[in-house]
Amino acid sequence: MAPQRTSALYPNGSAYVGALQHPQTAFTDPDLRAGTVQENVLGFPDPRSGNFASVFKVTSPTGQWAVKCFTRQVEHQQQRYAAIDAALNRLEHAALVHFNYQPEGVNINGTRYPLLKMQWVDAQELLRWLEHHHRDQEKVFHLAGQLVDLVHALEDAGIAHGDLQHGNLLVTAAGKLVLVDYDGMFVPELAGYPATEKGLPHYQHPARSDADYGPGLDRFSAWVIYTSLYAIATHSPLWTELREPGAERLLFTHDDFLDPVTSTAFTALRTLGNTQLAKLGDALVSFARSPRLDRIPALDPPDLLGVASTTIPTPRTPGPDTDQLPDWLTDHVPQTRATTTSSLLQENDDHKLPLQTFPGDSRLMAARLAIVTALLGAAGGVSGSRLTAINPLLWYLLALTAVLLVAWLYTRHPQVHARRQALQDHHDAKQATSKAHQQLSGAQHQLAEFEQRCRQHQNDFDTTRAAIAQKSRDAMTAASNVLRAALQQISGERTALGDGSGMRHAVLARKQKEHVGYALTNSLITNDPPEDINTLRTKYLAEKGIRSAADFTGYYVSDQGGRGERTYLRRAGGGSVYVKQIGKGCAANLVAWRESIEQRAERSAPKTLTAFEENWVRGELRRQLDLLDQREKQAHQQRDGTARAARAAEQAAYAEQDARQKRLQAETTSERNNLNRLKTRAESELKTCRMHQGRREKIAACYTDITGTRFLQRMAWMARR
Amino acid sequence: MPYTAEISRSNPSCFVFLLDQSHSMIDTIGDAAVQQRKADVVADALNRLLQELVIKCAKEGGVRDYFQVAVIGYGAGAASAFGGELAGRDLVPLSQVAIHPMQIETRSKKVPDGAGGLIEQSTRFPVWVKPVAANGTPMCQALQHTRRLVDQFLTEHPDCFPPVVLNLSDGASTDGDPGQDAAKLRELSSTDGNVLLFNLHVSTEGSQPTIFPGQDAALPADDYARLLFSMSSPLPAHMRAYASQQGLPVDDSSRGFVFNADITTVVQFLDIGTRASDLR
Ligand SMILES: Nc1ncnc2c1ncn2[C@@H]1O[C@H](COP(=O)(O)OP(=O)(O)OP(=O)(O)O)[C@@H](O)[C@H]1O
What we know:
The complex is a heterodimer.
Chain A lengths: L12 H7 L3 H4 L3 H4 L2 E2 L10 E2 L3 E8 L2 E8 L6 H15 L7 E10 L2 E9 L3 E3 H8 L3 H20 L12 E4 L4 E3 L39 H16 L3 H4 L12 H5 L5 H8 L3 H15 L14 H6 L10 H4 L3 H4 L10 H5 L16 H26 L4 H20 L2 H84 L3 H22 L12 H9 L8 E7 L7 E6 L4 E3 L5 H21 L6 H91 L6 H13 L1
Antiparallel strand pairs in A: 1-3, 2-3, 3-4, 4-6, 5-6, 7-8, 8-9, 10-11, 11-12
Helix pairs in contact in A: 6-7, 7-11, 10-11, 16-17, 16-23, 18-22, 19-21
Chain B lengths: L12 E8 L7 E2 L6 E2 H19 L1 E2 L2 E2 L3 E8 L3 E3 L11 E2 H6 L3 E10 L5 E10 L11 H18 L7 E6 L8 H10 L1 E2 L2 E2 L1 E6 L8 E2 L11 H9 L5 H9 L11 E3 L5 H4 L12
Parallel strand pairs in B: 1-6, 1-11, 11-14, 14-16
Antiparallel strand pairs in B: 2-3, 4-5, 6-7, 6-8, 9-10, 12-13, 15-16
Adenosine-5'-triphosphate binds next to strand 3, strand 4 and strand 6 of chain A.
């Protein structure tokens, strides 16, 4: 897709890199056409870029050239360069390079764009140079000296570079300082043109605005650079102490100028024990506080070599000598009465702007005239009818016109206009501050809400964890209860077993019962009939299955509902039976017989256990005890198993929670960082707005005297003169 | 003021380029005379952007690490699209990008010879990514991946000039509505401002090329164009100022959205180092 040239967009760097591969078609200058463009490791034209241009090195038959190709359009570039060229030619300073502006110097895809052909300076940028030489006091001082010389030359010629900073200060191998990039330069011929840029902030005064374009433009930057060089020369560790590696600045940042009180750089300069350095730093603080650029003095430091040789690193003690500014500075820091740390660190009123008044200019004269006319008119109106032939109404009209003229002169007065503007600016600044305030509270609120959410999450996690722990505890308790019940049961059984006597009794009882039972079974009625039990009765008994003493247990008599008595025998196996011819008497005999047998048998029954039985009982006891032991062990095992399972479940649940929490934490950390950054952003925005508002307020305060009354007073005062 | 942080070696920023490598990029755009596959167009644009960034940061002494750069291709997934020496890497310091193009290509074109005729001339240019057109368009995935990269970068460089994410696509996301993920990405902020998400939309829709349109601009009658426009960050004030200085019609509502046109200007609008704030 071909780049769309929908506007006056300038070619970008890659377009130049493409075109400059063929100098013979890219350039219009025959000399450059015959040249070769310096290449990088990949064989492409090797650019050095700024924000407005890329510079290429071209070696032509006539020499080495820096060819600057522009990537952003600058208004009136050609006129500007023509004016700059003329001014610099008059100056002829060694630190300046000659150039030749070619309005149609380079051809990109059939369109011609300007280029600037300069002498190639074989040099390093200031920062790179300092990287290597910051410990070389002599070299750095030498450079500072060249800076002073250059700045003086420009100042004397009414010229300002506009963007005095490290990127535009080159240092040759021989230590020679060269200033490049004249895009933003002011020369007297350019008065009235707007500025093209505002320079790198780390070198610029906080109050520099788009409207600033004039001879004093470089003063603050010059002081910044000089102070930096001086500080590095006298105390080289500052180079690393006050700068992060690779920082694109000298010792100061724009923030140092905005807020000198909290500035590490200014504090360092003051506390190093070098009086000269402390004073330079304090002077810079004072300049930074100046509300206007044009009140900053031109760079004019003391004799460099003299200073260099007297670098006495004695600890700075407050004394009369340090309270005095050096002579060379007293002129420049008019209101800094004392440079003690405390006085300079206080937000001083030294830079209160002058109160604005109405200047005694032609407008005031006109107003005075108008007032006189009005008075005349009024007077004429009163007396007009009698003294002149003119209608009094006309007199009044004249007076009215004059009054209106005064009013018009007042409202149109530039000072009044300026006052309106200042008030408006102040109002806008206040609004901006309140907006910034809102933004900050918004950010704080968001953060608070977020933290609240985080706490909620944390609570949820804690609750879940507690629930997990409780569940596991419950499972353990239940298992322990089961165990306890089992152990109780077992211990009961063990007590019951005791030393085996219970079992022994049981065995003996069974044995005795067997003996009795045996005797009963063996006592057949036929063999030993009880009283009254004859053969027939024996037969009837046998018919009903009652043959021995073991076959019945007792009897009872039933009256059968009044139909006569009947005797029943109770069978041994349960139930009862009626036996013919067995009445109450016979039954009683039978039962007595049986009881006598039973009693006899009980008496004859064995009273002890046999050895075999005793052995069996012992064995059985051991077996039973073993069984109990085993059951006890099992019960413990069961409890342990349940506990282990519960603990494992607990661990798994915790692990899951941990994983979730970790995920959430990563997310929240990221979000918290983000919200904190947003808050910091809002805070610094508010700080800037407040500072701006303060400045606007000061300016607005200067206009308290620009009022209608003052205007009239001033007129009257003039009239009286 | 947002977007005023210094871009320097001690406070670098980052650039993440998102390159649509989906199958739909095989379609051609342009008029009958110059037909180009969309995949070629975006790869070309990306290579030019990288070259521009490298040139912009070339100083006396070499290319400086003012930026870390990632190129994320999305198609089969979302991963580094760097080739050659840098293959597989996410954020790479710019000085490394500068010396490790995948290859150097030569293209020839006819140029006026200055004597009324035309001569054939070949121009070399560095190539970091090759055109690819296959698979779907997991734009959401690409934006999520980018969010992770950027989030990490912001943790390490909280005060940086906000990272710039430049998405080059035809807009037909196949893994959901990218609007959500785009919003989440733009929510990330350094102490200097929110992440900037810009979109270059290449479309077969033959509408008028558009650069940084505002709310009133007639957007191409293309749903994807609307989507990508709505995903794009508003242009920061200083970029707007540069754009209008360069004669582009922009207003307060202008967004970092470019339709079938050159997006290299975005790099041109970046200030290395800082400039005073009035211009912004
Ligand atoms: N005459 C010269 N000889 C050698 N190198 C030069 C010359 N002029 C400029 N350069 C180099 O090219 C770089 C860019 O040039 P220059 O500062 O003029 O560009 P710019 O776009 O105006 O920069 P800035 O962003 O500072 O305004 C300089 O920092 C310097 O290193």
